[in-house]
Task: structure prediction
Amino acid sequence: MDTVDEHVPRAGEMRPYATVFVARVIARHRIPLDYSVRSLRIVDFLVDGLRKGGADRERVRDALLSLGAYVGEVLVRRAGAVWVDFDAAQRAYFGQPVGVRMPDGRVWNPLGKVLNRFEVGGPGESLQIFYLMLHGRARQAAA
Result:
């Protein structure tokens, strides 16, 4: 994003935001989003579907935000991250108001990563690979 989206929930609101999204997707579409690392492959497919459908970013903004919140919540639940509100410098750099801080102190931008997958596509922007290559995650078995 070129500018920080002020409609994005704050860090303390991201977990409930992702939870509501997951409940809605499971109820309506039976898509198995279970916060596992494997489920990030499903997110890759969902973002690719939006992209291949020819949707412009503004039209699918809410869907991309929800998917980004889900990816961030996978990092929280599986990698030991915590949601954080970015400071001014981080907001300028990432173009997002929130992200996650890993156990080693590094910050990552799952919302921006979903946007990159949508805008660029391809295996280099895979959200599952993003997790698997992620520095600073807690040592846990990948689910």
Summary: The chain has a mean pLDDT of 90. Residues 11-132 form one domain. Helices lie at 11-29, 39-52, 61-79, 88-94, 110-119, 127-132. The first strand starts at residue 82 and ends at 85.
